Amino acid sequence: MVLKLSISGKADIRKIIGYVTPFVLMVVFLYIAFKDVDFDVVVNQLKGMSLLWLGIFIVTFLLSHFLRAVRWKYILNSVKEDTSIWNLWGALMVGYGVNLAIPRLGELYRALFGGKWEGLSRSSMLGTIIVERILDVLFLLLAVIFSVILYPGDLYKEFVWLKLTVYIGMAFVAAAFIVIVLVIRLKEKFYNIIVRFIGRFSKTIASKLGYMFGMFADGFASLKGTKNYIFVFTLSAMIMLLYGLNSMFGFYLVDLDGAHQVTYAMGWILMTISAFGIVFPTPGGFGSFHAITIAVLVQLYNYSAEEGAAYALAVHTISTTIFILSTVASIWLVNRRQKSLGKDKQNFINVFKIDLDEQ
Fold it and tell me: How far apart are CA 243 and CA 278, in angstroms?
């Protein structure tokens, strides 16, 4: 009994640390980002925001994420050809909304809502999301390499952590593809060898690993056909190009084009480096995005800390607001459509219910 309580206590402590750590990191990064910033200057900068560029920024932002839903549809084509783009879009935005509160939990909710609305198993949906994340990492790393080429100086020298991050990312992508190939081509043998080996040390970990292998197999098995591969890779490139364009529009949004000539290359480079602030496990990129964005604008383009802060605050606040509103609107609109089709409504609790076809 004492041993069980001890193990349970350690597990609870690990959970608490896991929940608290992202918020501690958020506070640390927010301090780093704004410790030397004069907020009176930032407020004056934000007062000059252009409504025209705000509209252009929002449209481009929404279009880039709509293309993510289209890409998800192509990944799911071999599993279900007639998936609703609006259901997938809704699930995608729900995922982003949840990530604002708890990092990475949004991926689970995205799979749960998407699976329920489309009548697909949560494991296959999670598998396709894993595929997407691997593609995102690959294209982000390629974007960084293009940034190194575009930047007139030594980008790796300006941000010393960037080169190591690229190497680690490339190693991750290579390892992921190797595992995927082994899981798909030698599914039973590879699965049995790994799970049996891990099971000697921990049955719990072996069970979780087996579930992950199943998701990998389901996810990549869904992406079939040369046409789908072409569309998925083309859409991935288009998404990155739109992200770069959106980043460039941010300069015009807060009137940073007055002192310096703004180019697409500036938007692209800022997008690729600041993206690591979103990847970092802070809620919604709070703090980490701001710190990295300000550092890029100050170090690479000689903007003041206040101008960098105005850009980071404007872009992040607009994005966050869109995600929150889209989460609420998506659940309401999709559920309304589901009800008209005679299907059950879904919420953040009942999406966890396992239907018979998922067992």
Answer: 13
Per-residue pLDDT tens digits for 32-46: 999 999 999 999 999
What is the identity of the amino acid at 302?
N
Contact 50, 303 (CB under 8 A): no
- Residues listed for the chain: 359
Structure tokens at 203: 């049955």
Q: Which token pair is 41? A: 């200057």
C-beta of residue 65 within 8 angstroms of C-beta of residue 238:
no
Phi and psi torsions of 124, nearest 5°: -70, -35
Measure the CA–CA gap between 203 and 279, rounded to whole angstroms: 31
195, two tokens: 């799970």
Quote the CA–CA distance of 9 and 11 in Å, as a whole number.
Answer: 5
Report the chain's C-alpha Rg in angstroms: 22
| Cβ count within 10 A of residue 78 | 13
Alpha carbon of residue 121 to chain centroid: 21
Q: Does residue 66 register a pLDDT over 90?
A: yes
Instruction: Of 324, 349, 346, 351, give the one whose Cα is nearest residue 335.
Output: 346
d(CA 21, CA 357) in angstroms, rounded, equals 37
Both structure tokens of 13: 């402590």
CA distance 220 to 209: 17
Q: Which amino acid, one-letter code, is at 207?
A: S
What's the rounded mean pLDDT across residues 13-34?
87
Closest-CA residue to 25 (of 292, 226, 264, 356): 292
Q: Which of 19, 35, 65 is nearest to 239 (CA)?
A: 65
In which residue are the tokens 């609305």 written? 117
User: pLDDT per residue over 110-133, tens digit each?
Assistant: 989 998 899 888 777 888 888 888
Which phi and psi (to 5°) does residue 180 adopt? -60, -45
* Helices 2-34/305-340 angle, 10° precision: 130
Positive/negative CA dihedral, 316, 322, 325, 328: negative
State pLDDT tens for residues 238-256.
Answer: 999 999 999 999 999 999 9
The amino acid that residue 232 corresponds to is V
Token pair listed for 71: 């890409």
